[in-house]
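Morning run. Coffee first, then this:
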Amino acid sequence: MSGYVVLTWPSDDAEARNRLAALLPPVVLAEGWRWAIKDDNWWVLTTAHQPPAILQIPDVSGLIIGDLFTRQFAAATPAMLRGRLSVERACPERQCRNLLADFWGRYVAVLPQDAGPRPAIFRDPSGALECLTWETGGVTVVASHLPDWLLDHLTPRLAVDWSRVGAFLTNSANIGGPLALSGIEAVPAGALYADGQVKPLWRPGDIARRPAPSLEQAQDGLREVVDGCVAALASPPGSIIAEVSGGFDSAVVAATLARLPNAGVVQWVNYHAPDRRGDERRYARALADHCRFTLSEAIKPEAGLIAAGLQAISGGPRPALDGLDVPRDRDIAARCETLGARAIFTGQGGDMVFFQRATPLVLADDLRRRGLRALSPTALRNMSIWTGRSAWSALHSAVHGSRRGTTAVDHPWLADLEGLPPAKRLQIETLAECQMMSGDSLRARQATMIHPLLAQPVMEHCLTIPVMDLTGGRRDRALARRAFADRLPRLITERRAKGELSAYYGRMVTASLDFLRPQLLEGRLAAHGLIDRNRLDDVLTPESLIWRGDYAGILVTALVESWAASWERRIAAGFKAP
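And here it is:
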């Protein structure tokens, strides 16, 4: 867990500083936090385990929390920041725009404002570090986590926002958006928070409107940004666990890691389910042979959900969607502890940046770009084969593609997509959904989760590439498959099917019915009218599950129920710290 808490107050408010001095020190030491900075401008605390890096900006008195790199993929230094940020001290927005132009990383910037007593806060576009803020008793809090000691002494006016909880159930991607805890502001990825207002400074739609590269530039540039981001995020060399699912995206990250001379990978691990569709070891083994590393294979533990398992991941600011597969989450967390791993590298985000979805909207984009030349017989035949639809159906969707409905995800990235072609809008919508991938989990508390394919340079490069060029109009990730063909086995680059875990999650839900029925039918979501008790009573039977499925929806509902009930109890108890 790479956690931080920043506390700041107006320079003339000695009372706020003195109150903090009397309250915090013994509590912090008791709960596994440590002092990182304690001066007249800031108090910064970090977790003792896996503390984030902190850069103090000369001549600005600002902070960068987390990892920051240059556009040449080198670690940033205070001297580099001085020239780009100190000249813009009077304007935090310009400072942050300079950060976006010249740097990237996994960071939160906290910058003083000459015009006011409260700092400006910026969260980088990857959203890799959580960023929460509130004010109380003259103190501004900026934090990644909400431990009891912090809420006990610097309590916001906190309550569960049941309308937001309902949005989580409507679309689980909303978990990565505004919190369901009123009284705390979550700064969105790529946004500046200042004077109580959120201003997006980095939006995928703006990047997508930049001039498109040629196909050669797109392919060569993709290799360059993936190589650079993986190498930068793997430095300094340390103990890394690399997830090797057997899919294309994790293969790209793993193969790139394997090329580094000193990456420090202590385990390459594949998790597989005990059924044919959930077993991708054939592909993971082919990658291990091709890249010459030793693969560790682990069967996904078969176990039902229990209250204690969900409660263990229900204390974060959001429902811990990334920890929902509790048995697997617990297993890899234990591996991290045993091996001393500091980071887990994944291929998450590849579906979105490389474009995985088989949709005739790709043809709609090309129709807008090239006119009727896009509707050649070859293009229609390729689209028909790829999407499994007739050529006429594909043509109809392409012509009417701009009429597709809006997403149910609440995110500022989706506020300005007018004028973009429909497949590019779809890509941006799925990128917004990726914000839920950096949440709490047992393994994230043990090691830092690294998703290189969601790094700012990779997202920006892929957003500028037309979706027709990303796919060739005939298969998912076509450009990426060509770009990385020389470092992956053909078994992976030519694979068309994806792994399928529905049966595994179906067995998990069925084995959990004795727990799930009372938890959901008698729980807080039902009490607030957010779920239909009668419908759920029918669904939560072995017979109904066979025919209806929706295992993922049931698991997410159970997770949200546990999270909401946990926060209701914590708020009622008053966060009494030891």
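Residues 461 and 469 are 12 Å apart (CA to CA). Good start to the day.
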